[in-house]
Amino acid sequence: MTKPKLRIGLIGSGFMGKAHAFAYSIAARVFDLPFELELHTIADISDEAAAKAASALGFARATSDWRSLVVDPAIDVVNITTPNALHKEMALAAIAGGKHVYCEKPLAPLATDSREMAEAAEAASVKTQVGFNYLCNPMLQLARDMIAAGELGELRGYRGVHAEDYMADSAGPFTFRHDPAGGGALADIGSHALATAEFLVGPAAGPITGVMGDCVTMIKERPDGKGGRRRVEVDDVGRAFLRFANGASGSIEGNWIATGRKMQHDFEVYGTRGALAFSQERFNELHFFSTDDRRGRQGFRRIEASPDHRPYGLFCVAPGHQLGFNDLKAIEAAGYLDAIAGRQPEPFNFRAGLRIQTLVETIHASSRAGTWKNVP
Amino acid sequence: MTKPKLRIGLIGSGFMGKAHAFAYSIAARVFDLPFELELHTIADISDEAAAKAASALGFARATSDWRSLVVDPAIDVVNITTPNALHKEMALAAIAGGKHVYCEKPLAPLATDSREMAEAAEAASVKTQVGFNYLCNPMLQLARDMIAAGELGELRGYRGVHAEDYMADSAGPFTFRHDPAGGGALADIGSHALATAEFLVGPAAGPITGVMGDCVTMIKERPDGKGGRRRVEVDDVGRAFLRFANGASGSIEGNWIATGRKMQHDFEVYGTRGALAFSQERFNELHFFSTDDRRGRQGFRRIEASPDHRPYGLFCVAPGHQLGFNDLKAIEAAGYLDAIAGRQPEPFNFRAGLRIQTLVETIHASSRAGTWKNVP
Amino acid sequence: MTKPKLRIGLIGSGFMGKAHAFAYSIAARVFDLPFELELHTIADISDEAAAKAASALGFARATSDWRSLVVDPAIDVVNITTPNALHKEMALAAIAGGKHVYCEKPLAPLATDSREMAEAAEAASVKTQVGFNYLCNPMLQLARDMIAAGELGELRGYRGVHAEDYMADSAGPFTFRHDPAGGGALADIGSHALATAEFLVGPAAGPITGVMGDCVTMIKERPDGKGGRRRVEVDDVGRAFLRFANGASGSIEGNWIATGRKMQHDFEVYGTRGALAFSQERFNELHFFSTDDRRGRQGFRRIEASPDHRPYGLFCVAPGHQLGFNDLKAIEAAGYLDAIAGRQPEPFNFRAGLRIQTLVETIHASSRAGTWKNVP
Amino acid sequence: MTKPKLRIGLIGSGFMGKAHAFAYSIAARVFDLPFELELHTIADISDEAAAKAASALGFARATSDWRSLVVDPAIDVVNITTPNALHKEMALAAIAGGKHVYCEKPLAPLATDSREMAEAAEAASVKTQVGFNYLCNPMLQLARDMIAAGELGELRGYRGVHAEDYMADSAGPFTFRHDPAGGGALADIGSHALATAEFLVGPAAGPITGVMGDCVTMIKERPDGKGGRRRVEVDDVGRAFLRFANGASGSIEGNWIATGRKMQHDFEVYGTRGALAFSQERFNELHFFSTDDRRGRQGFRRIEASPDHRPYGLFCVAPGHQLGFNDLKAIEAAGYLDAIAGRQPEPFNFRAGLRIQTLVETIHASSRAGTWKNVP
Questions:
Q1: DSSP per position, C80-92
Q2: Using an 8 Å Cβ cutoff, are B250 and B240 in contact?
Q3: What is the CATH number of the domain that holds B182?
Q4: What's the pTM?
Q5: Averaged over D27-32, what is the pLDDT?
Q6: Is residue A1's pLDDT more than 70?
Q7: Could you tell me which chain B residue has the CA closest to the CA of C304?
Q8: Structural domain span for residue D117
Q9: Overall domain count for chain D
Q10: Are D359 and D208 in contact (CB under 8 A)?
Q11: Residue A44: what pLDDT?
Q12: InterPro entries from the xrefs (chains A, B, C, D) (predicted)?
């Protein structure tokens, strides 16, 4: 039985463009996908760059005109991995072209734009995906399942952080990530901490209902790349207190000037009967404390990723061999393809991406106001 | 040359009473103390309890009347290790009796009481000490020295936590720690997180100037010990955003319902040139990241306590052998005795204890108001 | 410029067959390979199994006749991932057919067979590869480079282990891995420990020149799969003392009954100026101690995999994102393809595979004799 | 009820002399000892040194004549903390004087001497103790109890190491520890690894019955302290394969040139149903894997020392506060005092110390012979 073809268009070939291309390749080998994938066209900033990327990443065609890509009738899915400010225009055009759209996070710099995108996608009945790839880790799915199954008892507290140091050097130039409209550490990586928080505890504790934000700019200006300096207004550190629907409370921090940290996407969840602790620095492990263990033998238990934790076993039949970052992205792609085929709901669609933008903006608003805000 | 005698009176023989007695014994062996110590009198709730404690802890005399102890002309130093609500009365009486006073933390449930105690001590020119024992760890002193010496560069961010689970069981009874006047997780152990924050970064980043608090009661009532239930109003989790004088920002959390955590007194400090990470769960280690390390060889370095880190070498001449909790308490006692002898300033006197209470109360007030508060 | 085609034949579609298929797919995306790869034919035990595997793993053709595959003029490289006892016959046939051969480890159960294979390949001037995939970790390459560059000073000691628990259950059946000719824990996974030892320290300390073995059978019989029991003669634990050419000494252990261990492929290397420690359980980290660090700041430093450590950056441009097991296999495949293209020497050819078998057999012989043996 | 007095004499006031003095002080506070201790006399190399030590360590009298100390009728227990070569003469003299003797390890450089000492003590019916202090860790007692109770199932494998780096610098001078008669890393610290091995698994797997040794001298000569160089013959690294009475096998390593290691006294024990892993670098933790945990939730569990693990609770009533090295020594002293009082058997008497010397010498003999040796 032959599978239907699904033709992929990709806009952008940087860090995340490559990650999408890798993800499809890996997914096609690892999963029993519902489609035969065709890497159809890649668009980049120039013909030359696009041609080079097509060759490197395995796309059959290349273009410097993303507008032609998003209306190409031969293309089924459009992947958007360009700077954030371009997401909206590209996504709306692709949706208008009837394409499914897989957009990198953040969905758009502003929640209003994100909403427009989500509504357009829903009106057009296309399937969408936003790239919150850390959620695709089998150990996070395990954590979520354990929490939902009550293995921690009733949830009481949450602590999350996403800290890196890629903006720690004040000599680094002003980039699109510093754009006052939607930039900053909270939006860029604090968003991961927020996504993880609701992903994990949402089913058990309900959504985040209130936030108190603390967004701080530590590096006040940066080289503008033209010999001058440019004022920076976005946050280098964005913190929030959280309130969940069930009354549990917590906090998150997004921080891109945390010298020495490369991938501190960590969380701790505390319930009445147990706790979980996790660090992306060792993301093939989940640490689990249970009050069910007998007295004198209790302790945080280091669970290593194994075929017991789906879909690890599709990558490797033996425990302890470990997944890498590109594998997480492949899981994300596979889930999205299943959603396109109607096999499952969209794992993290534009509406979910809007939700994160809403949380980010509510935290920003709270920080500016210096008071708690309800999350709309 | 014989040393002058210093006669110790101790009120209380529970967890902290024992710790004080152990501390003096260890300090007398390990340090070249300025005094010959005499464990003179111990006071406890009854004659019988006091006699038993005296025998166990090596005090020559016992009494059930703490009031007689604090005015006994034979006693030089009064140690107070009773429930928090009693600290003030006992300390003021001891100060009035001309005694030096070594009081367990928190100094008093309320800052106003703490201030009265600090001012009385200063007026009487007696030497005081409050028991923030975790500060006495050589690795914390190392961290403070490194920060002060600029090894991290300019300070930018701080994350602190003190989480345990001794109140996680909602079937546990209402105790003095739940007293609406001064109880709660923030006061009880969040205070350690605050003390550590200012201890470490104060010399470099200045004091905490502003706070935004988030204090949450998760267990709303507890058994009252008489067959009924009693409403709990104090916080089970107390969080705060922090602002330091130099503009650096941070956060702390005090949490006594963190299931599975026994001694998560942790911090991370980030500067422009480096970072430190520490956990009391492994308190003979300090983790240090330096951008001075060459490219491709950078990473958090696990520094193990050794004779290079004073006063570790007095306990053991070989590295890696490790100090225990009672050793930290002995370092605290030794520092205090040096202060009494005029060899050094008081390491953490009542004024410093008042400072912590002020921080706690400002966080409480901020939490109630839902807005930032300047720290007086 | 189009690349020459390289057509791949794969025999076997189990754990390692999949890993080879994944490896080529990932390598084709991640690396600038010298060839355009074509997954040409897969051979498996039956037509049905082969067809299914071809579909799953992306091969164009399927066959149940591996003999036809190895002589198919359309095929350039033959990958052998079948049980160990079949490696020799298949490899010799493929070499006779003029194919390059990429064979899973161990090369063959016996060193004599391995030698025959290595000599045949060399005589035929085909390029060969044996799958010691853990060596392909950028952190191991880093370790080797550091050692070779003298960052540890003169090498003195080595400790290696490869322990798992996949044979810990005595109710598990007798398999080809228990075959008296070439089976056992030392051959199966102790071989990894040996390969890593020589890979890391060989350039600096020279090869292993002498061994003293200790091979122990703990589970004396196993179910034979036909309702009976079968005697087991191979080692469940195989240890060895090692002597290197420069006089340094060390030890390794292979252990497949280490309950709880999933991937304890660990090593520690000690030199006069520093040390390295590594665990495959956290294989994106390397721990480095240097006496060059200043006094009071020394400690094992956790270096996280980053673009500074080639070829990590081809997988991900940002540090800390981590590689997975299949990525290691892709690095292995890419290195082999470069060798086929003449860009570099074979990374781990049949001659190197023979070396490992020789070490394994010398250890076995030493264990049987109860005395040290020189390694031929 | 007053306790009988026990008067302590101590010979030596270096590292271990201090540790003994500290141990008695701590023990007297922490434990309900059967005696009232009196630190009676300390002997050191000169009158001046002895007087200074007496003052520092709390002994009432000082002498430069250890011979007078060991026959002083006022003294009940003699503690020997001098260089190894002096142990025998001092111990025999003390035993002849009717004293109980608490001797630092190793009992004597040679097993024949150790035997003489053990037999003399037994003939004189005095109580003896040898200072294998790491065994006194509550987490080791826990490990032993768990193994004895069958929580790991049937024992199969053991891996132990004791590695430090205090002899790693080849510029360090020749000391008594390099004495050809009884010196070397195996005797000095490998002995700890041996003691721990039998302590833990002895009750379940029986004693070590056979050994194969590998003792290596890496630093062939050292400064002799007089401007010349002196040849070193003792081992810098001493390894052994082990066979236990029940058929389980294992290995240990003693290594005093392991650059970067300060206290790597580690072990792993594997049984049919579980495993334990421990490092003295974090000695308030024990890691436990149990196959009884449910599938998908298995993992090594970090058990933190707590009042559930005797006698931790006597030091601190709260979990997670941690013991230090001097506390371990206090537990050792307390156990010995209980043995003197007849409350329990001697925890680690001269006969046990002889056992370790016998193991060390058998390993040395095996290493020299290059063959396995049965342990007498």
A1: E-S-HHHHHHHHH
A2: no
A3: 3.30.360.10
A4: 0.97
A5: 93
A6: no
A7: B299
A8: 5-133
A9: 2
A10: yes
A11: 96
A12: Gfo/Idh/MocA-like_OxRdtase_N (IPR000683), Gfo/Idh/MocA_oxidrdct_glycsds (IPR050463), GFO_IDH_MocA-like_dom (IPR055170), NAD(P)-bd_dom_sf (IPR036291)
- At residue B2, the pLDDT reads 82
Q: Please give the backbone phi and psi of residue D30, each rounded to the nearest 5 degrees, phi first.
A: -85, -40
Average pLDDT over residues A190-196: 98
In this predicted structure, the answer to whether residue A347 has a pLDDT above a threshold of 90 is yes
CA distance B270 to chain A (A): 6
CA-based end-to-end distance of chain B: 47
Q: What is the pLDDT of residues A65-111, one digit of tens each?
A: 999 999 999 999 999 999 988 999 999 999 999 999 999 999 998 99
Per-residue pLDDT band for C1 (boundaries 50, 70, 90) equals: low
Whether residue C84 has pLDDT greater than 70: yes
> What is d(CA D41, CA D57) in angstroms, rounded to the nearest whole number?
10
Q: Report CB contact under 8 Å: A320, C282.
A: no
Chain D: closest CA distance from residue B54 (Å): 11
Same domain, residue pair D9 and D41:
yes
Contact criterion met (CB < 8 Å) for B370 and A212? yes
pLDDT digit string, tens, across residues B92-112: 999 999 999 999 999 998 999
Distance CA C120, CA C96 (A): 8
Is there a domain that residue D47 lies in?
Answer: yes
Confidence at residue D1, expressed as pLDDT on a 0 to 100 scale: 59
Domain-located, residue B306:
yes
Q: Are residues C181 and C78 in the same domain?
A: no
Chains that touch C (3 or more CB pairs under 8 A): A, B, D
Sign of the Cα torsion A146, A152, A157, A162 reads: negative
Query: Is residue A182's pLDDT more than 90?
Result: no
Same domain, B227 and B280: yes
d(CA D340, CA D24): 14
Which among D72, D106, D133 is the end of a domain? D133
ipTM of the complex: 0.96
The reply to whether C202 and C69 lie within a common domain is no
Between residues 128 and 187 of chain A, which touch chain B (CB distance below 8 Å)? 152-153, 156-157, 159, 161, 168, 170
Q: Are residues A101 and A124 in the same domain?
A: yes
pLDDT at D182 (0 to 100): 87
Residues comprising chain B, all counted: 376
- Residue D2's pLDDT band (cuts 50, 70, 90): confident
Last residue of a domain, one of C83, C105, C132: C132
Mutate to test the interface with D, among B265, B322, B328 (most CBs of D within 10 A): B322
Q: Do B30 and D19 touch (CB under 8 A)?
A: no
Cβ of D249 within 8 Å of Cβ of C298? The answer is no
Across residues B273-282, what is the average pLDDT? 98
B142 and B284 in a single domain? The answer is: yes
**Residue D95 maps to which CATH number?**
3.40.50.720
* Residue A365 domain-assigned (yes or no): no
pLDDT tens digits along A18-66:
999 999 999 999 999 999 999 999 999 999 999 999 998 999 999 999 9
Structural domain includes residue D339: no
pLDDT tens per residue across span C308-319? 999 999 999 999
Q: Which of C352, C335, C311 is nearest to C198 (CA)?
A: C352
Tokens encoding C111: 């060193």
Residue type, C273: R
- Vertex A279, ends A276 and A282: CA angle to 5°? 120
What's the Cα-to-Cα distance from D365 to each of D110, D113, D213, D232, D368, rounded to whole Å? 12, 17, 8, 18, 5
Residues B156 and B295 grouped into a single domain = yes
In this structure, is the dihedral angle defined by the CA atoms of residues B65, B71, B73 and B75, taken in order, positive or negative?
positive
**Beta-bridge partner residues of C264:** C163
CA A105 to chain centre: 6
